Amino acid sequence: MQPCSREMQAMNSLQDLQINVHTPHADFLEQMLSTTSFPASSSSSSWSDLNPQDNNAAAAAGFHHHEILASNLRQQQQINGGHDSNPFQAMKMMMQQQQQQQQMMVAGFGRATVAATAAAGVGTHQGGGEGSMQALFNSLGYGSLHQPQASFGSDSTPEVNHSQVPTAAAATPGKPKQKVRARRGQATDPHSIAERLRRVRIAERMKSLQELVPNANKTDKASMLDEIIDYVKFLQLQVKVLSMSRLGGAAAVAPLVTDMPFEGGGDCFQTSGNGGSLPRNSNGNRTPSDNESLTVSEHQVAKLMEEDMGSAMQYLQGKGLCLMPISLATAISTATCHSRNPMVSNVNTNSTGVNVSHLLLQSSGGDGSSSPSLSALTVQSATMGNGGVDGAASVSKPLD
Amino acid sequence: MDSQLLNPTSLKSRFTARFLRALTKINAPNPISSSSPTPREIFQRYRRIKVAADKSMAYSVRSRTTWSRATLSRLRTRSRHRRLASFGPRSSVTTAAVLKKTSSHGKENEGGLGVQAGELRELVPGGEAMDLCNLLDETAHYIKCLTTQVQVMKTIANLYSLE
């Protein structure tokens, strides 16, 4: 039977299916279900050697193929009229039909069994191709199904006749290129098979990504991808910010944008290396944990702001503070409030045309490993001497 | 607090070792002054640290993933650009051309996810020339490495601040 298998391999209809044969073993079961490469896969092992035990795992899945095989065999019978046809030709047409038909007629295992035995019975009827048919069945690992063959022998013929009638209309002489509608969600040609495999792999990877990304309860792929994109952006931003914060000692980016907020209108977010700077500023009376000192520094800042924004900025930077709009500050404080104890105090000070209201936030890290105290100083000046800076606010927080 | 020892061969420990070494190299020449240095210096320092972080992460991964290779090549060409400014545009053009050639294949079957896939390709280094399947793989590994990086840098920042 080896030449038979070689011949089958040479068939162009099987060329593409061959590719599926060599995919890794894990996909084996899936292949069984989705491709019709059974005869091709059997070519890798000798025809008669394939034991039912080997295919036990796939036996259940193989029932589908059994069904198809059975129906194809029936059609084959129908087409050839039972005469002694070239077994290769028979195989070839069967393979073609298999490709196009897939698993549309899977009804149940019971029927599959009967159909299989019917096919087996049919196979025995066929003259020249009998040996090859038997070999085919053996190799497909359905040897166990040969047992009931004898008992179901009488049932086989009505089954065959019954199924021959509907297929008669479909079967056309010559080389039938049957346009059988595939099962929903499955296609029949190798390209769509490969496509389906791709889709499955992509779905697997999306699932593993879902575990990595927090807040991943989205169901459809597009929103899941959006979440992934946002998370990657967030992580990259965190790395940037962290590399800024480790500058140790000096306020990091604040001097870069000193001029910006006081021109535009106070929409600036500046962070400073508070983590490094605070302990280095060993001016005892200025420790942020002291409530009083903060008020003092607030006044200081307000005074400085009257003269020159730049110097106020510098002063804040020295303490590891920065300026940001109040709206942003409130947003941040509400967002990062989980393990901290925020202390909020509101003081309104009116001094020489500068309306200062500030929001003081002080919180300490929850556990030892989290960042040290977060102190925020917010100053809002409605009117400034040098004109029109609204919404300028200063907040400082150590970077997390 | 941290009672368990780091697995010496894990990604985290490899990255930490490299990064700390780079950090000491950066900190050594210029002593930290409490007065604010010029913006230029600050920016340079930030840049160096970020590059050190990315480079040490990419080295820790070796060349197992496409994104690490792309990051390393990107860093190398960038440093080369800094030194030989005249050669800069040429090499970047050639690499872009090469990428364009390879990027057309394998991107046909994305379903309806073309927009997001393009965005992801921009984010993940070296993602331009990959089909969606591999891109998702790379993204998973990239996310894992980024989280490690962030964790380690956070810890180091805390240590700095507690001194």
Which strand-content bin applies to the residues of chain A?
5-15%
Largest interface, chains and sizes: A-B, 59 and 52 residues
The SSE string of chain B, one letter per element, is: HHHHHH
Total helices of chain B: the number is 6
Structural class of chain B: mainly alpha
Helix segment tally of chain A: 17
Short recap of the structure:
The complex is a heterodimer of chains A (400) and B (163). Chain A is of the alpha+beta class and 400 residues long.
Q: How is this structure best described in words?
A:
The complex is a heterodimer of chains A (400) and B (163). Chain A has 400 residues and is an alpha+beta fold. Chain A contains 17 helices and four strands. In chain A, helix 5 (56-80) crosses helix 6 and helix 7 (109-125) crosses helix 10. Chain B is an all-alpha fold. Helix content of chain B is 71%, strand content 0%. Chain B is globular and about 55 Å long. The chains are: A alpha+beta (400), B mainly alpha (163).
List keywords for this structure.
heterodimer, A: 400 residues, alpha+beta, 17 helices, B: 163 residues, mainly alpha, 71% helix
SSE topology:
The complex is a heterodimer of chains A (400) and B (163).
Chain A: H1 2-10, H2 12-21, H3 28-34, H4 38-44, H5 56-80, H6 87-101, H7 109-125, H8 130-139, H9 147-151, H10 153-170, H11 190-212, H12 221-245, H13 260-264, H14 274-280, H15 291-307, H16 309-319, H17 326-335, E1 343-351, E2 354-363, E3 374-377, E4 380-381
Antiparallel strand pairs in A: 1-2, 2-3, 2-4
Helix pairs in contact in A: 1-4, 3-5, 5-6, 5-7, 5-10, 7-8, 7-10, 15-16
Chain B: H1 11-27, H2 39-61, H3 66-83, H4 88-103, H5 114-123, H6 132-162
Helix pairs in contact in B: 1-2, 1-6, 2-3, 3-4
